[in-house]
C-alpha cells in the first residue's frame, strides 16, 4: 500500500469517526500513519491497530514487542495490544479514549486547533519525548497527500 492509498483509507475512517467525536480527522490520520508506519506495521496488519492501543479486560489481543521510553531512554518491552475488526473500529476506539479519559481534557478543549490538540494529546499518548514534533511532521505530509 502506498502512502497515498493509506491516507485515502485512513481519511475515510477518520472522517466517519470524527463526525461523532469532533476529533480533528487529519490529526487522526497523521497519528495512524506515525504509529503504524503508514499502515505497514505488523500490528496494523495483524490486529487493525493503528495507534498502539493496549488491550484491556477480555478484549481480543495480540502480543508484540514495542519500544517505550523510561526517563528518556528507549526500552523494549512485550505488551498485549488490542485487536480490532476494522480500521474504522480502531479509529472509533481511539476517539473514545480521547473523549472519555480525564487526562485528555486539554486536548478536547483544543480540538479546533491542530497544533494545540497535538501538544495536549501527545503529553499523555506516548512516552516518546519527541512524539508531538514527529506527529506535526507527519501531519504536514498527510496534508500534502489528501485529495
Note down, in words, how this protein is organized.
- With about 150 residues, the chain is an alpha+beta fold.
- The protein has a single domain (about 5-45, about 85-145), classed as Lysozyme (Orthogonal Bundle).
- It has seven helices and two strands.
- A two-stranded antiparallel sheet has the order 1-2.
- Helix 1 crosses helix 2 and helix 6 (about 115-125) crosses helix 7 (about 130-145).
- It is globular, with a radius of gyration of 14 Å.
- The chain starts with a helix and ends with a helix.
- The mean pLDDT is about 95.
Structure described in brief:
This protein is of the alpha+beta class and 147 residues long. The chain contains 7 helices and 2 strands.
* H and E order: HHHEEHHHH
Strand content: 5-15%
Mean pLDDT: 94
Q: Helix coverage percent of residues?
A: 55-70%
- The appropriate CATH architecture is Orthogonal Bundle
For the report, how would you describe the main beta sheet?
2 strands, antiparallel
- Return the domain count: 1
Low-confidence stretches: none
- N-to-C span: 17 Å
What is the top-level CATH class?
A: Mainly Alpha
Gyration radius, to the nearest Å?
A: 14 Å
Tell me, briefly, the overall form.
globular
Amino acid at each position: 500500500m502506498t502512502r497515498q492509498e493509506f491516507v485515502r483509507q485512513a481519511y475515510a475512517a477518520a472522517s466517519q469517526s470524527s463526525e461523532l467525536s469532533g476529533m480533528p480527522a487529519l490529526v487522526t490520520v497523521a497519528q495512524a500513519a506515525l504509529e503504524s508506519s503508514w499502515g505497514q506495521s505488523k500490528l496494523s496488519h495483524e490486529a487493525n491497530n493503528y495507534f498502539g492501543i493496549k488491550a484491556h479486560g477480555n478484549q481480543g489481543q495480540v502480543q508484540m514487542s514495542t519500544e517505550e521510553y523510561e526517563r528518556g531512554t528507549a526500552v523494549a518491552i512485550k505488551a498485549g495490544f488490542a485487536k480490532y475488526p476494522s480500521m474504522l473500529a480502531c479509529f472509533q476506539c481511539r476517539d473514545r479514549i480521547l473523549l472519555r479519559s480525564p487526562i485528555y481534557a486539554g486536548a478536547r478543549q483544543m480540538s479546533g486547533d491542530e497544533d494545540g490538540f497535538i501538544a495536549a494529546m501527545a503529553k499523555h499518548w506516548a512516552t516518546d519525548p519527541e512524539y508531538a514534533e514527529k506527529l506535526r511532521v507527519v501531519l504536514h505530509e498527510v496534508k500534502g497527500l489528501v485529495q
